[in-house]
């Protein structure tokens, strides 16, 4: 029986938090936590959890995950969830390495040969979406996602709605319907603004519209589903557990859920995907994150048939010196980038043990730093807070 000997965190550019778990017999696994604007809180939560896990049997992943999420009386919330998820991913990486098996083999085995991916093209800033989309098509992608609007007021400024429609129209003029385009509302669009915005966007046939409202406004989803009419509705990147997803699924308003493996954890993501299958709801995992998060998310995509497409962050504009941080990109910390490199817009199945990637430990240790992302300071013209 191998026991947990140490749990360490590494904060590296552009905004990633890697978690390394080492067992007393020398195996090492990697996970990834997120919420970079609360990075110190996340690292502190991991340190607290680590103190309680010293000497614990590393193979008892479900028991550990349950205790991390439920064992401190005050529970839930994204900071605690992502801290637990980073540790849990690393434990799966260790379990797979020990058995000489990829994690998806523990979860039922393969259901597909490859996983379709999509890429980001900005949408608010940068807003040169046609040229950016052209580059993505040249890279092999047939699906992209962009932010639909900048900050939008409660009733919606008509010029911003018209600008959003113009961007979508420019993409359709340039590429017709051969390019799937998803729209991320990022919680920016208030209820009264949704109707005029979606009325304009429906003609361009978005692949989906996501996170129209913030997670606490679940009651908006049914209205959104009516307003979206023929547009599939997606949400879920900020939800942390099956229980939160069940409430959303029970509304009957959602067509696609978007759990993030670095919030839910790997096994919880798999459970959420299986639950969504009962509701005939597709899964498009959220992952504008680093390489470990993507590798963990793909393990679930390989074994769950209702995962329809995978987000990935290569070339994401946030990586190009975001908030003054040094530039870094998705593949920079990998010894071999092949497992996370798309060919013709898809990820091939990866049968390597654990999460299927090998991190460059020297690069991670050399580049770690106490970076801090500032809070977004978006405001409306009257000075009130605007959703980022």
TrEMBL record:
GO terms for molecular function: galactonate dehydratase activity. Pfam families: MR_MLE_C, MR_MLE_N. SMART domains: MR_MLE. Keywords: Lyase. InterPro entries: DgoD-like, Enolase-like_C_sf, Enolase-like_N, Enolase_C-like, Mandelate_racemase_C, Mandelate_racemase_N_dom. Its EC number is 4.2.1.6. Residues 126-234 form the Mandelate racemase/muconate lactonizing enzyme C-terminal domain. PANTHER family: D-GALACTONATE DEHYDRATASE, D-GALACTONATE DEHYDRATASE-RELATED. NCBIfam families: PRK14017.1. This is Galactonate dehydratase. It comes from Chelativorans petroleitrophicus.
